[in-house]
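Section 5.1 Outputs to date
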Amino acid sequence: MTPTTDPRLQLAPAGARAGTWLFLLGFVLPLAITAIALAFAVQGKGELKLVAGSLPLTIVLTLGGLAVLCGGLWWLLARMMRRQSLQLSAAGIDVRSSFYRCQVPLQELKLDQARVVDLDEHTELKPTLKTNGFSIPGFHSGWFLLRNRRRTFVAIAEGRRKLWLPGNGRRDLLLEPRDPHAVLARLRELAANGGRG
């Protein structure tokens, strides 16, 4: 598949809200929990296992080591959240989102039933159960079970308009391109041309 160069036909990037949640959950929260646990351990009456017999050194090494570990994990997840691509061709659709990829041949898509939706109005298409995915508020990527009980590959951010592409087999798609109407029109054009591009 050749890359799609039209920016309207690309997936919407994760927004600032998703980035903030990732930082809070992946970096701040583990450090806060560990700091609280250390404070309780120091206040307790039990014997502490200290590094070189020093409480300050133990605290610095514990929090510092955790900060390095969480910082590395946060950096990796933030980088993967930016891995968003959508390629359309006569062969079908190729979606890459964070750690996941889904390819669906054009003939397996029910384009006559595909539509642009607002999930606040079409709640049956909201992702409810993550079966193999990456999800934080404002970003969902991977395989999910929707409220309509269909297992679906999801690549959505926090915009309002999503593209629902039902398949005739095991693969449905719920995507958030920058211009969902343009993606749907391009897919229908490819299908009408018999997959000749």
